[in-house]
Write a structure and sequence with these properties.
4-stranded antiparallel beta sheet; Butyryl-Coa Dehydrogenase, subunit A, domain 1; 3 domains; about 400 residues; alpha+beta; about 15% strand; 4-stranded mixed beta sheet; binds flavin-adenine dinucleotide; Butyryl-CoA Dehydrogenase, subunit A, domain 3; Butyryl-CoA Dehydrogenase, subunit A, domain 2
């Protein structure tokens, strides 16, 4: 039992899901992870296995084809995938959490019945399209427009940095149906086959190269009126409401990167000798190992506690932002420490840790940057102390 589990116990189902994902990750993902990164390829074979294992619909109820797993089990899946390949974990999360769980949460019974079984089995793939070329952190200022004409909405505009943009079949898309601000935004389910929809070429990235990221274009794109999620004007609320879940579950990604980096660094530090001694016996190397272990432990406590709060239906905004911020910044620091422990070999591709470091940098940007997390955290601290700014 890990130290974290002594504080936050896993259920039998959570342990089983973690072990199942660990097997798939070590047997099917680890051997191809370097090649996926080098060639910027998506792990189709691994996603097939994840679908067969029932993991693609992890947090969706069984009646819609999901596995009814807990939020904590979803964090564990992210950890196990990211330990070997951050990009595969990113695409998994974009599909299972922000693409599929958000659709489940805000859809009506007909929409759930129509889209969820295929998304859960992996027959179709999901994505979430909020960010625009001119609106990232200021997401509620988005400019893509949706106009109702008869039984259809006509969408015009563009999205950018969309994970799974080139491979997804079903997109949760946010567009403006009303005035400026969050209340003028609506959310839609957009199918790839919609007339007027196109996705761009995958963008070349520093890391997360196994996860395709593209622009999306809406040129008089026709979306049936029944694909509106909720009511007109609720989209901004949906986008914000989904963020605590997104930040909590995606925290598993930097945690997995840290675990992967620590595993490599530990093994290397007992094999490599300098000055006639194992480098792990040098106290300055131990100092880096100690920091890595501490950051991993605290990141897990923050992520697991946020996941449990969400499961109990409690407000988890502060906990989720603590978790997202601490785990993402820790993963950049820890993967850099792992490179340092490996010395020159850490800088060489074959030794994996430079890839984990490139993957880690994204986590400080996506899902709300570190600066935005600090703004949220400060706001929540003032709020919880009953103080107004
Ligand atoms: C690989 C990748 C995958 C992604 N996947 C998705 C996806 O699937 N769906 C999706 O919708 N989006 C996705 N994104 C977009 C991501 O969420 C945005 O990049 C992120 O929110 C930041 O927006 P931006 O890039 O426009 O930066 P900007 O908002 O332009 O920020 C630039 C800088 O200014 C700072 N800044 C901005 N506002 C403030 C402020 N008020 N106070 C202090 N500092 C501020 C930021 O912290 C940052 O340092 C992805 C991005 C990447 C790179």
């Amino acid at each position: 039992m890990s130290e974290t589990e002594q504080v936050i116990a896993l259920s039998e189902q959570e342990e089983a899901i973690r072990d199942l994902t660990r097997r798939i990750s070590d047997q099917d993902l680890a051997p191809i992870a370097d090649e996926l990164d080098r060639k910027e390829e998506f792990a189709h074979s691994v996603f097939k296995k994840l679908g067969e294992a029932g993991l693609l619909g992890i947090v969706i109820p069984e009646e819609f084809g999901g596995s009814a797993g807990s939020f904590l089990s979803a964090v564990l899946i992210m950890e196990e995938l990211a330990r070997n390949c951050g990009g595969t974990a990113l695409s998994f999360g974009a599909h299972a959490f922000i693409g599929t769980y958000n659709l489940f949460k805000f859809a009506n019974p007909e929409q759930r019945k129509k889209y969820l079984p295929d998304l859960c089995s992996g027959k179709t793939f999901g994505a979430f399209a909020l960010t625009e070329p001119e609106n990232g952190s200021d997401a509620m200022g988005l400019q893509t427009r949706a106009e109702k004409r008869g039984a259809k909405y006509i969408l015009n505009g563009a999205k950018t940095f969309i994970t799974n943009g080139s491979i997804a079949d079903t997109f949760v898309v946010f567009a403006r149906t009303g005035d400026a601000g969050a209340r003028g935004i609506s959310a839609f389910i957009v199918e790839r086959s919609s007339p007027g929809f196109a996705s761009g070429k995958p963008m070349e990235k520093m890391g997360m190269r196994a996860s395709p990221t593209t622009e999306l274009y809406f040129d008089n794109c026709e979306v049936p009126a029944e694909n509106l999620l909720g009511q007109e004007g609720q989209g901004g609320y949906f986008a914000l409401e989904g963020l605590d879940m997104e930040r909590t579950l995606f925290s598993g990604l930097p945690i997995g990167l840290m675990q992967g980096a620590l595993d490599v660094a530990l093994k290397y530090s007992v094999e490599r000798k300098q000055f006639g001694q194992k480098i792990g016996s040098f106290q300055l190397v131990q100092s880096m190992v100690a920091d890595m272990g501490m950051k991993l432990f605290v990141s897990r406590l923050l992520a697991y506690s946020a996941a449990r709060k969400l499961q109990e239906g409690k407000r988890a905004t502060l906990n989720a932002s603590y978790s997202k911020l601490f785990a993402s910044e820790s993963s950049v620091a820890s993967t850099l420490d792992a490179i340092q422990i490996l010395g020159g070999y850490g800088y060489i591709r074959e030794f994996k840790v430079e890839r984990l470091m490139r993957d880690a940098k994204l986590v400080e940007i996506g899902g709300g940057t570190s600066q935005i997390q600090r703004l949220i955290i400060a706001r929540e601290i003032y709020r919880s102390n009953g103080l107004e700014l």
